[in-house]
Amino acid sequence: MRKGSIFTIALLITAMLMTLCGTTSCGNGKQNDIEAASSDDGSQDDAESRERSAGAVFAFPATDYVDQKEMELADYWKGSNEASLAAVMKKAAQGKKVTIAAIGGSITQGTVSAGTGDSEVEEKKSYTEYFFSWWQETFPDTELETINAGIGATDSYLGVHRVRRDVLEAEPDLVLVEFAVNDGNTQFYKKSYDNLIRTILKAENAPAVLLFFMAQTNGESAQENQSIVGFSYSLPMVSYRNVIKEMTETGKYSEKELSGDGVHPSALGHAIAGEILWKYLNSVYADLEVYEEPENFTKEAVTKECYSGAEILNAEKTVPEFIKNFEEDTVFPAFPKGWSCEEEGEIRFKVSFANLGILYYCQTDGKGGQYEVYVDGEPAGVLDADFKGGWGNYAKAQECYTSDRVSEHEVTIKRKEDSTGGMFSLLGLLVSGGTGKGS
To answer: What is the pTM of this model?
Structure first.
């Protein structure tokens, strides 16, 4: 394990001097005049606040894999407004309960692959565990609720439909979003990611948002698309991708050390991701008292604001108008109470929406069939549940119909005539309204 590097010592000394001397760096979202953090008679903020802020700079991760240059690459974007993130820290420093959430795919959920460099990692944890532990260790006397809304093989398109159920209903103070590995650099994913971020930012309790960009070890990531969204909204962004790219190019670590399967980080990879987040959070907290109050989010959509009110309709929320050989069933616990059939089946709904997607179960046993979707009698797509020989069963979200106006539609899902199998599990209908704003 690499500990006690010059960078860590230098950062610690700098943070101590900053706290003792009342000086700070000029970061984005902070007051331009540092003296505004002092009272009229020149005294600093109350000693308790300074003591809590000082305590945070000592909350360093146990690892020291990431040097100063790599941290500069992790915190690459200029213009981020960290005021909302700082406000959450201020709330926690006051001893008030805070709720911290993370939403993403399997990496966020906690999947750790076996890498060749894992022997040097004492604690084999996911990056979300490291992320949550920063809040726990920095504010030990504050009630902390954590929500891990990571679900394997899910993307931001499904994310925008489940974020209310899985995250926003708990009224989180901060939401970390990570879909850079499961999304692609396409216009479709740029739109779905944009809508997901806007849904969070526009929630009634106005949570802070932190964007985190993971990557496969070959560098594949949707960071380009997602950072455009983040930059447009001046959001805090942190990149694991930039760091491991530097590490592999310089020979500091190999791809096999960072991941056992090329997709999911190894214990070493997760530790590096966790350390990046720790050091980034420390950098914000070190200057906590000079951040301004956050402003209300009012910016226009980067793409098209089209998934308003997005949700998943399962058997608890809608009743089929017609059903043949389908029965209510739960085959995927993360999305319970759907409908399944084992032979030629058909199911029909009357539902109001502007946009429609289908969430269904893809299976590796070769028994999954191909089912057709019709909207108002018109073909709207083919759902292929056969994932024979794949890496595992998963829930697939597929968009089938889009418009700018909400109206009632008839949705029919039935077995394709030349289907290779009969089994099909419908996990839910993905419905949303459309405002037509943006492009």
So the answer is: 0.88
